[in-house]
Amino acid sequence: MNFFNYVSSTLVPIKNIERELICPICKELFTHPLILPCQHSVCHKCVRELLLLNHEDSFDAGSECSLPGSPGPRSRVPSPSMERLDRLARSGAFGFGSMSSPGWRRGSVTPRITTFPCPGCQHDVDLGERGMSMLFRNFTLESIVERYRQAARAAVAIMCNMCKPPQQEATKSCMDCKASYCNECFKFHHPWGTPKAQHEYVGPTMNFRPKVLMCPEHEMEKVNMYCEVCRRPVCHLCKLGGSHANHKVTTMSSAYKILKEKLSKAIHYLISKEDQVKTQISHLEVLINETEEKGQLAERRTDENFERLFETLQERKFEMLRSIEQSRTRRLDQLRGQVDEYQGMLENSGLVGYAQEVLKETDQSCFVQTAKQLHTRIAKSTESLRTFHPVADPSFDEFVLDTSREETLLKELCFGGVPDPPIIDLSRSRVYNEGLVCWQLAEDTLATDHQVLEYRKLGVEQDEEEGGSRWRPTVPVYGPSTVVCDLEANSLYSFRVRSCRNSFYSPYSPEVTFHTPPAPVFGFLFNDKCGFSSERLTLSKLRDSVESAAGMAFLLAAERVQTGSYMGLDYIIGDTGISQGRHYWAFRVEPHSYLVKVGVASDSKLLEWIHNPRDTSSPRYDHDSGHDSGSEDTCYDLSQPFTLLTVGMGKVFIPKASISSATAGNDHGNRVLPMPQRIGVYLDYEAGRVYFYDANTMRCLYERQVDCTGTMYPAFGLMGSGKVHLEEFIAAKRLSYM
């Protein structure tokens, strides 16, 4: 059986694919779906609702959105993406700008939003000034939705649009007239011998799509190419001078063949793995049941834990209240007894009254017998009167309960267990003499308190059995990155990170290694003064990237080739020179760049190049080394005041006279290497040598002697389309001093 026939014979019924036909915003079947730049589809009406907010919804955070012509708000299934859109719209994150900005329409107070998050992948979609007009309709998806609707309402026939009542059932639809006909009406409206007889017709349908897909940027042009960078169809004007001028494109037929073959193979692979998918579904169902059971068990255990806490608190509360009551009773009894004692000191009452009666006794022996004891009591009362002191303290400070620590512990109660480890992000981390290490936190619903990064140098003598020096931790980091200082040059370091939550530490992340460059980072930006050609080079605002566009100036220069005046490189240099020491810098060259020269050059040589540009088509100009000699081998021993390496079309071209053992020989395969993602340059001024590295692996690609008699500058030469970005860490270091 043919491969494509096999795929066709295994198609699933149309009714089983409903989940793929639902708009992620309105949760309904797609209606005129549009393809976003991220390749997800959204209903036309949903995009319009996001971009054309009315005045009330744009400025009143408490109002509901009611679009013109809409009978009222449409009920929807809430989704995180819609909530995020609502927050962005109400917080003004889309931006309204001034009345002269493209975001405003003349004569209207309604702001026009051009940026929103894709509900499928959450990436921001920027439609620019053209707004919805730049989006393609997804006619393929639209046709599938229509077939689904027809399958769902198979009992309801499509009626002829031309019949007078009673209408007949349609037998065909005309894609040019965008109408459905019965047999008689089709013959009447498409008579033989007329242009209408050549119209394209299909079976009855409600989906009338254009016969030819037109370019949204150039509305009169048909799309006939496919941009592999943007992954979308384009027309020839887009490629010649539009936004896809420097992008790689292919013919539509080639893209159709390749994509259809890839899709068919992917479908075949999925179908061949049906048993595996069913096994995994069964495993997931077991996990669902297990999750349900263990979730209920966790709830019961949580109830039990809190009940025990409540019981403990109740017991402690009862004991404390009982202690307070006993202390209160005892103190009251003591104070009341003291009150009674002092009451006796008053005249005609208590002790004083009794003493007065004793004084009336005339019998001396009887008086002495009674007065001795009485005098002792009165002396004590007199003494207590002079040194009055309550027998009990009314304060209950000893029963004041400080529960702040316990409250803090209760608030910090966490049943999340040990947090998941973060992952170090290799794409954003950079390590030089200082290291910027970034990581991604685990996708966890519970926040972490902080992270701790640890690093160590590998390959040292101490702790040789452990493979390197001891781990050195950083201070707690409250974010997704940190900077490590004082790293040794030309050394291999290992890094790992872990998270902390409520004093519980996660396992360590997988260790990653970085090789530091052989010298400290040299910070510079592009020089926009010396020899900079603003006609052919475009410099970024921060001067950390430069782009050469193959525009009109390049074409005019190419026209002069017939008269003997050839095109030359457009040079740009760093804004800081080197007159001593060892220095390292790194940069990125865009893969689509045609020709870029990178390296170093002296100030005198740069002046010569700028004022007397060389012809790149000259027979004495060699692309491999940048030298103007006709033979590299004869000039190899001569020290030149410059060295440039050729990079372009995704390749690095190693000069023939390279002394690197890895690229020795004159074989073309050894001299042409894949272009690294990042390229590093190391200049040793005193030794007079320059080295070129793969900055990701610190593998030396090429080295050469260079004459460092003057001030040396980082130098770049571009021809045709190309772009160079300085390494972010280097550019940031230079910007901090501006």
TrEMBL record:
Subcellular location(s) of the protein: Cytoplasm, Cytoskeleton
Identification of the protein by name: RING-type E3 ubiquitin transferase
Domain B30.2/SPRY residue range list: 504-734
Pfam families registered for this protein in UniProt: ANCHR-like_BBOX, COS, SPRY, zf-B_box, zf-RING_UBOX
SUPFAM superfamilies in the record: B-box zinc-binding domain, Concanavalin A-like lectins/glucanases, Fibronectin type III, RING/U-box
Any one of the GO CC terms: acrosomal vesicle
Keywords assigned by UniProt, alphabetized: Coiled coil, Cytoplasm, Cytoskeleton, Metal-binding, Repeat, Ubl conjugation pathway, Zinc, Zinc-finger
Domain Fibronectin type-III: 418-519
Gene3D superfamilies registered for this protein in UniProt: 1.20.5.170, 2.60.120.920, 4.10.830.40, Classic Zinc Finger (3.30.160.60), Immunoglobulins (2.60.40.10), Zinc/RING finger domain, C3HC4 (zinc finger) (3.30.40.10)
GO BP of this protein: acrosome reaction; spindle organization
Stretches assigned to coiled coil: none
Lineage: superkingdom: Eukaryota
Similarity section: Belongs to the TRIM/RBCC family.
Record-level Gene Ontology MF annotations: ubiquitin-protein transferase activity; zinc ion binding
Domain COS: 359-416
Keyword Ribosomal protein: no
Residue ranges constituting the RING-type domain according to the UniProt record: 23-65
Name of the encoding gene: TRIM36
PROSITE patterns: B302_SPRY (PS50188), COS (PS51262), FN3 (PS50853), ZF_BBOX (PS50119), ZF_RING_1 (PS00518), ZF_RING_2 (PS50089)
Chain ranges of the B box-type domain: 210-252
Chief location bin: cytoplasm
UniProt xrefs under InterPro entries: B30.2/SPRY, B30.2/SPRY_sf, Butyrophylin_SPRY, ConA-like_dom_sf, COS_domain, E3_ligase_FN3/SPRY, FN3_dom, FN3_sf
